[in-house]
């Protein structure tokens, strides 16, 4: 399998080179040259596989013989041995139409662990095999940072620097990152928003000379390995329901700000998974919902919400979707992204919007609706949602039709966002791993939001 850039100016490259490149050297995003097509017979054969066995089959399609199968199996097994549930991403029935896929059973209680435990082990494997230096640079709206740090802390040959928006993540998210004192970890708290952090990351990776000089590697979902790892649990959720006798197509409701998690579902659908509708749930930072409903991609006014991991205005994976929306025409994508850079918006014609709406539905969830949903599901079903999952559930309640089956992706354990939970007078017990964080010292540096200031910190650290 080879990987190409959405902007068409990078020669096709292998999987390992693709994950090391992260952001394509032409400023685009890497995608597989062809998307594997799965037959109904293959889907039936996969239906009884364990999560680890399924991950191995899907990764093999995208990696080929670059990593021997025995080595890949060990990477997969090691990555998911850290999860607290034997099914890795179990699906729980909440009511007649709604199931919740719990993606928070990894080390940091967030869905990012599913991809970043694997990517961390993959980077370590490549570093040892090639005797190469790996310096990871990432930005987080809260969960990516902790999951990435957990995936590589203490590993030889790897150093990691994570940027997060100062005082704009939950306290538990902050503690999970900043109580780590390993010598290969640097936390930078940036005075600004997540969009500022993400812009800095993309601009530093676009500085190809700096990127190569300091061996920068990506941990954010601009890295194609992140998307591939997240694709697995869409298949696994569908198979869990099929094993319970559900034979119809399934909706997936996905809380998203960066378009990575829901793009993984789009990729699964293009591979042949019988998905009925992808429901895109945003909070009041609703650039993606407005795009699906109106055909205009334009940042609005930033709003702090109870679901801070989705407080994002510019979605870094959106370009990958545009690439497929426009028939994999890299020339059009390069033009559109230049237009967005100069004009600040992209507007698509009506016929193209119809294609978007044939795949996606979207709903923007207001702050109070998010809290109402948490209260309602706790009282009715004795099920506690974190505020991001609550956005996904609220969108599902709004958009799914009678008789449909919908899986809402539960992206984090509610203990990570107690600030929102306690607003509705709900008391919860922290898992012991999270409770222990409050007694630990923190290690972080507060910095300004200029590229040069971040570069200066990186040069000193790397």
Automatic annotation (TrEMBL):
Gene3D superfamilies: 3.40.50.1100, Threonine synthase, N-terminal domain (3.90.1380.10)
Entry superkingdom: Bacteria
Cofactor entry: pyridoxal 5'-phosphate
EC number assigned by the record: 4.2.3.1
Catalytic activity: O-phospho-L-homoserine + H2O = L-threonine + phosphate
Spans traversing the lipid bilayer: none
Swiss-Prot/TrEMBL keywords: Amino-acid biosynthesis, Lyase, Pyridoxal phosphate, Threonine biosynthesis
InterPro entries: Ser/Thr_deHydtase_PyrdxlP-BS, Thr_synth_N, Thr_synth_N_sf, Thr_synthase-like, Threonine_Synthase, TrpB-like_PALP, TrpB-like_PALP_sf
Pathway(s) this gene product operates in, as recorded in its UniProt entry: Amino-acid biosynthesis; L-threonine biosynthesis; L-threonine from L-aspartate: step 5/5
Enzyme type, top EC level: lyase
Domain Tryptophan synthase beta chain-like PALP: 87-405
Similarity section: Belongs to the threonine synthase family.
Protein name per Swiss-Prot or TrEMBL: Threonine synthase
Organism listed in the record: Paenibacillus segetis
Gene behind the chain: thrC
């Amino acid at each position: 399998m080879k990987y190409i850039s959405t902007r068409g100016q990078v020669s096709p490259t292998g999987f390992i080179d693709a994950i090391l490149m992260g952001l394509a050297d032409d400023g685009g995003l890497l995608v597989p040259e062809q998307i594997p097509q799965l037959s109904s017979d293959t889907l039936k054969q996969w239906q009884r596989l364990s999560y680890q066995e399924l991950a191995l089959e899907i990764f093999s399609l995208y990696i080929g013989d670059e990593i021997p199968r025995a080595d890949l199996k060990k990477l997969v097994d090691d990555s998911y041995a850290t999860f607290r549930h034997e099914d890795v991403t179990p699906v729980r029935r909440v009511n007649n139409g709604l199931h919740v896929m719990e993606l928070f059973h990894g080390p940091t209680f967030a869905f990012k662990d599913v991809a970043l435990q694997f990517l961390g082990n993959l980077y370590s494997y490549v570093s040892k095999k090639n005797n190469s230096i790996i310096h990871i640079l990432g930005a987080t709206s809260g969960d990516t940072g902790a999951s990435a740090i957990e995936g590589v802390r203490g590993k030889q040959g790897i150093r990691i620097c994570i940027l997060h928006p100062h005082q704009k993540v939950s306290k538990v998210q902050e503690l999970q990152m900043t109580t780590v004192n390993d010598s290969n970890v640097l936390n930078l708290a940036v005075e600004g928003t997540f969009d500022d952090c993400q812009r800095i990351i993309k601009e530093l990776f676009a500085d190809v000379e700096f990127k190569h000089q300091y061996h920068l590697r990506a941990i954010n979902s601009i890295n194609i390995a992140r998307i591939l790892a997240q694709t697995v649990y869409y298949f696994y959720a569908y198979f869990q329901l099929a094993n319970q006798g559900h034979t119809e197509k399934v909706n997936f409701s996905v809380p998203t700000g960066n378009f990575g998690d829901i793009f993984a579902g789009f990729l699964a659908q293009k591979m042949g998974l019988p998905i009925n509708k992808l429901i895109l749930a945003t909070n009041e930072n609703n650039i993606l919902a407005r795009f699906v409903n109106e055909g205009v991609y334009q940042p609005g006014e930033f709003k702090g919400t109870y679901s801070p991991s989705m407080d994002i205005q510019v979605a870094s994976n959106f370009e990958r979707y545009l690439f497929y929306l426009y028939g994999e025409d890299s020339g059009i994508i390069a033009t559109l992204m230049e237009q967005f850079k100069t004009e600040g918006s992209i507007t698509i014609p009506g016929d193209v919007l119809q294609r978007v709406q044939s795949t996606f539905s979207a709903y923007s969830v207001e702050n109070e609706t998010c809290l109402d949903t948490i209260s309602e599901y706790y009282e009715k079903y004795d099920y506690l949602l974190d505020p991001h999952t609550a956005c996904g559930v609220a969108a599902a309640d709004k958009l799914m039709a009678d008789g449909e089956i919908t899986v809402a992706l539960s992206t984090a354990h509610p203990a990570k966002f107690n600030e929102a939970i306690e607003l509705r007078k709900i008391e919860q017990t922290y898992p012991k791993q999270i409770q222990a964080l409050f007694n630990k010292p923190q290690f972080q540096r507060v910095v300004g939001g200029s590229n040069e200031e971040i570069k200066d910190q990186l040069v000193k650290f790397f």
